[in-house]
Amino acid sequence: MTRRLAEVAKYAGVSEATVSRVLNGKPGISDTTRTAVLTALDVLGYERPAKLRGERVRLVGLVLPELQNPIFPAFAEVVAGALAKRGFTPVLCTRTADGVSEADYVEILLDQHVSGIIFCGGLYHQGAADHEHYHRLHERGLPAVLVNAAIDDLGFPRVSVDDGHAVDQAFNHLTSLGHERIGLLLGPSDHAPSNRKLTAFEAFSATVRTDDVERGIFSMEGGRAGAIRLIRQGVTGIICASDVLALGAIRAARWLDREVPDDISVVGFDDSVFMNCTDPPLTTVRQPIQAMGQAAVTLLVSQVAGTHVPTEEMLFEPELVVRGSTGALRTAATKAA
User: Fold this and answer.
1) What CATH number is associated with residue 24?
2) Backbone angles phi, psi at 127, to 5 degrees
3) Contact, 63 vs 93, CB < 8 A?
4) Judging by DSSP bridges, how do beta strands 283-286 and 319-321 pair with one another?
5) Is 288 helix (H, G, I), strand (E, B) or coil?
6) Residue 89 belongs to what H/E stretch?
7) What is the pLDDT of residues 246-296, one digit of tens each?
8) Local structure of 176: helix, strand or coil
9) pTM (2 decimals)?
């Protein structure tokens, strides 16, 4: 019993005495605290007291595009913990290859009478995608938050990393190492975060070439194919729109018998888990997912409580993390030596 109290208290962010008061039905406990304790019981797998079993926990949908990219599970962990501490239970939904679409999940979540939905990496990234399900949610007045570079006219609060500043940091880092020919490896042409990165890259028009930009799908294979083209064009530094693309770029360099970072420097984006364990460890621009996830939950919970929240995009500053995949460019004399 003591261990259970301690675990539940830690998860809910309250004292053991508060947990005990909730379990024994004592007065003087706020609804938010009480619900957080009950949610902690559910999440940790402890059985509720008989008199509390009939109470439903409030649900919030968390819609992700996939779980293979480590950044999405990391974000889910932050959001799930923040929701639980506020008395909500997250319902994880990931789009699948066998036909369960984002719009399908929206219908499922509506049938479950969720209190709101947080989208991360949704179809709002893609200008050519069908956005009807977002408009339907807006018309119904269901609270929702969109994470990262949503299209402007959807009417929901938005939490995003500053893609332009990410490119600025990566570009300045590579030029400080002596790289003069820098390329950009992006996602598809209608991918909003990639287009924001491209705009920032093009601002360096005095020193970059417009043909040193490649696009592809977000996969190691896509990164490898695009990087091969860039390296053959003479690029020595590559800025990638994701860590997965960056890993593909490192493969491309090795396939072309180039060394990373002596011949080719590669910068990723996200700082996904284990990027410090790759060979070489990946220099990348870190998304502040802890702060972004907490902000997304705060915006959603405020809406659920009936508080008006602004729909203007909230931008978060990324952080360049320098590791072993970038280095000073070897000159011809250095190579000969």
Assistant:
1) 1.10.260.40
2) -65, -30
3) yes
4) antiparallel
5) coil
6) strand 88-94
7) 999 999 999 999 999 999 999 999 999 899 999 999 999 999 999 999 999
8) helix
9) 0.80
